Amino acid sequence: MSEKSEASPSTFGAMKYVHVMYLTGLFIIGWLLINIVESVWTSLNYQFTWMPAPNSAIVFLGGAGVAVVLVLYMWRHPKVNRLAIEIVSELSKVTWPSRKELYASTVVVLVVSVIAAIILGLFDMFWSWATDLLYS
């Protein structure tokens, strides 16, 4: 039996999220590869002016093709697929805060950040005054 058929019934509901994760990864990897190739080609074009501009269709098809092959390889690899399933199952166990809890936590973070900034600013003013007094 393959790894996929040994998954518990509860993971089959999570498989749609795993597939969305792979699809998102496909688009991100493809976008990155296309932009990297275009950036490298552009920087080389500044150094070697004889190089023609890259054909956008070829760059797109090459980046998309490499991304598809890479994501299919990761999807078929048992360890990567098991890791993706475990990530999704762990994320399904997370208890997300309510809007009220999120608002209260945000206020606490902002207040503590302002207090820390004031304290650090006072320390900076003191040390600036002390070093000016010492060196002048």
What does this structure look like?
82% of the residues lie in helices and 0% in strands. With 136 residues, it is mostly helical. It folds into two domains: 1-94, no CATH class; 97-136. The longest helix has 39 residues, at 9-47. The chain is flat, with a radius of gyration of 26 Å.
Supply the key terms:
136 residues, single chain, 2 domains, mainly alpha
Radius of gyration: 26 Å
Low-confidence stretches: 1-5
How many independent structural domains? 2
Distance between the termini: 81 Å
Biggest sheet statistics: none
Helix content, binned percent:
over 70%
* Annotation, overall tally of beta strands: 0
Strand content: under 5%
**How would you sum up the global shape?**
flat
Mean pLDDT: 84
Number of helices: 4
Secondary-structure element string: HHHH
Structural class of the helices, strands and pairings?
A: mainly alpha
Furnish the topology, listing elements before pairings.
Layout: H1 9-47, H2 56-76, H3 78-92, H4 99-135
Helix pairs in contact: 1-2, 1-3
